[in-house]
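How a chain folds remains the central question behind the approach discussed here. This step matters because it turns folding into a mapping between discrete strings. The sequence in question and its structure tokens are set out directly beneath this paragraph.
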Amino acid sequence: MMIDLKYHVASLVAVFLALGVGILVGSAMVNDSALVEQQERIIDRLEADFARLKADREALTSRLAASERALSASLDFEDTIVRDLVAGKLAGRRVAIVVCQDAMSQDGRKSVVRCIEEAGGELVRIIYVKKRLAPVSGREAREVASALGVTAAGAEAVGRTAAEALASYAVLGEAAPVLDALVALGYAASEGGTADPPRRADAVVTVVGSPDPAFSPADAGIPMVRAMKSLGAEVVGIEAWDVKVSQIAEYRREGISTVDCADLPLGRLSLVYALSGQRGHFGIKDASVTCIPDIVHR
């Protein structure tokens, strides 16, 4: 009897154990199935989101391409209008250009030159200022002073001498030993200016704005502007609309006309009018006073 009772208890334990294992297995299978379904729903949502983002990206790309085509057509149209508006405005005027440390792209500078010539102006020379005119160390100042043939070896005095020499060449076109030394030392380079006798510039376009935040207007541009003004030249400061470091506000304080978007058609229009004597601060940035000059009553 005791053997049968033990057998019965063992059988009941086995049954309940099997039942518990079955419940656990079944519960796990149900949970795995729910997890799989949840994962499938997440994947479906992600695929839908990805498809929507792809469609949005394609639509934005299409709109951007259309906007670029419209902008290009608009700029071409503005160029055509500007050519008509500036024709003859600079007839008989001689213009020099000073470019401070790679300010403005080559294409932008070419468009400025083309506009000056389309307006009837004569480009007499271009000067490129390649680095700050005031040496950064006493040793460099002494070396540069020796090369320039000046007795004062201080950085400020050397920088002033260099600025005056470059300004004199920009306005008067007269080469000097100091200019040759600056070119040889890599401080400057020039194009044109081979006329004999040299041709005086009536106006000088100073291209400013820098890709290097450490290159400030006080390093070259402003000393040259002051020297060129003292020689009686009309000076106009210009920069590109998208220049990395805008400097036009500092040149505005020097009492010269400025154009902050000279690589755009409306900026080139403003430049020609400024060179013809209509003073002001033109452009699209905060430092400007008006977008374009008064072209109706001129």
Summary: The chain has two domains: 1-86, 90-282.
